[in-house]
Design goal:
Helices cover 46% and strands 21% of the residues. The chain has a five-stranded antiparallel beta sheet. It is built from six helices and five strands; from the N terminus they run ββββαβααααα. The longest helix has 21 residues. The chain folds into two domains: 53 residues, Thrombin, subunit H (Beta Barrel); 97 residues, CarD-like, C-terminal domain (Methane Monooxygenase Hydroxylase, Chain G, domain 1, Up-down Bundle). α3 packs antiparallel against α4, α3 runs parallel beside α5 and α5 packs across α6. It is of the alpha+beta class.
């Protein structure tokens, strides 16, 4: 299975599910064809996903970003929130697309743009999208900084609070 670009026990990001771990590379026969597939575990969702090795790149499966990206994430969070003048449904669609792109900076932009003080009256869908992006961002950051995901969430929110207080 030399065509595998990821290794067993490697943490990876699958765009629509966040951080998972490659637990196996197995052969499967699908439609009469033999394929090598990555078996990816997402323990936080109690889910296993199988992605054909040959389609891994096309699906957006990627390694975790490097530690050098941490500063880019923090810079993005400290940047100015972009207030869209489009209807919420259109913005919500754009935010979902950014989250599911798997691009860590795009996810940080969603967190930054949707962050408001906890006391504010956010709509249910806005809060849901914000929490989804925050969870996705914190999941990868937790591994990069070797901290618990809850601590990563706290750290991200603290950065956002400091920015809004300034």
């Amino acid at each position: 299975m030399s065509d595998s670009i990821f290794k067993i026990n490697q943490k990876v990001v699958y765009p629509s599910h966040g951080v998972g771990e490659i637990v196996d590379v197995e052969k499967q026969v699908i439609g009469g064809m033999e394929l090598n597939v990555y078996v990816i575990s997402f323990p936080q969702d109690k889910m296993m996903l199988r992605v054909p090795v040959s389609r891994a790149e096309a699906t957006g499966l990627r390694a975790l970003v490097g530690e050098d990206s941490i500063n880019d994430i923090y810079s993005t969070l400290q940047g100015r929130a972009r207030q869209g003048n489009k209807m919420w449904s259109r913005r919500a669609q754009e935010y979902e697309t950014k989250i599911n792109s798997g691009n860590i900076i795009h996810i940080a932009e969603v967190v930054r743009d949707l962050y408001k003080n906890v006391d504010s009256n956010r709509s249910y869908s806005e809060r849901t999208i914000y929490e989804q992006a925050l969870k996705r961002l914190a999941g990868e950051l937790a591994i990069l900084e070797d901290i618990k995901q809850e601590d990563a969430v706290d750290k991200l929110v603290e950065i956002l609070k400091e920015k809004s207080a300034a």
